[in-house]
Design brief:
Helix content is about 75%, strand content about 0%. It has eleven helices and no strands.
C-alpha cells in the first residue's frame, strides 16, 4: 500500500489498514517485535501517522486483539442452515483454513502469552470468549430442540464449554503438528467426540462438502 493510497482512504479504512499491518507484524515478530516503526514500515506510512490514530502501541495492540476475537465470533454468527447444518459448519470452520493455520497460531500465541499479565488484553479475551461461547450455546440449544431434547441453559452451557474445549485442543494440535495427522483426521475426531457429548449424529460431511465449506 502506497502512502498516497492510504491518504485517500476514509478514516475507518485507515484504521483498518493499520490494524491489519499490526497483525502482520505480530504474526512475524510477536508483540514485542511489533514496534510502531515496524508497523509503520509494513503499512507504508510514518510512525507519526500511526500515533495520530492510536495514542500508544498498547492501544493499537488492544484494537488488533479485538479484531482477532471478533472474526471468530463473526464466523459463528454468519452460519446458516438447519440446526444440524449450522452445528456441523461451526465445527468445520474452527478446524480448517483460515481459522486453523500457522498465522492464526502465531497471533494466538502472541496475545495469549500476555493475557495473564495485561488487564486490558484479559478483558478483551474474556469478553470475546463469552461472546463466542454464547453463539455456541445457541447453536447447541437449537440443535437439541430440533432433536426433541431438553435444551435448558445449564445443559447448553456445560455442552458449549465441553465442545469448545474439544475444538480448542484439536485446533492447537492441527496448527502445531498438522503433518502428523491424516487428511481430515482431526475433523473426524471432533465430530465423533461431539456426537458422543450431544447424543446424536451430526452427519459428518463428505470430502466434496468439506471442500465447499
Amino acid at each position: 500500500m502506497s502512502r498516497r493510497d492510504f491518504h485517500r482512504a476514509s478514516e475507518a479504512e485507515r484504521r483498518h489498514d493499520l490494524i491489519e499491518a499490526t497483525l502482520e507484524c505480530i504474526s512475524e515478530a510477536g508483540l514485542q517485535g511489533a514496534t510502531v516503526r515496524h508497523i509503520a514500515t509494513k503499512a507504508g506510512v510514518t510512525a507519526g501517522l500511526i500515533r495520530h490514530y492510536f495514542a500508544s502501541k498498547e492501544i493499537i495492540l488492544q484494537e488488533a486483539y479485538k479484531v482477532v476475537i471478533a472474526r471468530l465470533t463473526e464466523k459463528a454468527k454468519n452460519i446458516t442452515g438447519t440446526p444440524e447444518e449450522r452445528l456441523r459448519t461451526f465445527v468445520l470452520v474452527n478446524l480448517t483454513e483460515p481459522v486453523a493455520n500457522s498465522r492464526s497460531l502465531s497471533l494466538w500465541a502472541a496475545f495469549i502469552s500476555q493475557v495473564g499479565v495485561d488487564p486490558a488484553l484479559a478483558a478483551i479475551h474474556h469478553e470475546g470468549y463469552l461472546s463466542f461461547r454464547q453463539e455456541l450455546e445457541e447453536l447447541l440449544a437449537d440443535f437439541l430442540a430440533a432433536k426433541g431434547e431438553p435444551a435448558g441453559p445449564a445443559r447448553c452451557r456445560a455442552l458449549a464449554i465441553a465442545v469448545n474445549g474439544i475444538l480448542d485442543g484439536l485446533w492447537l494440535e492441527g496448527c502445531l503438528a498438522g503433518e502428523l495427522f491424516e487428511e481430515s483426521e482431526l475433523v473426524s475426531i471432533a465430530f465423533s467426540s461431539i456426537e458422543a457429548l450431544v447424543g446424536h449424529p451430526i452427519a459428518v460431511p463428505n470430502d466434496t462438502e468439506q471442500d465447499r465449506e
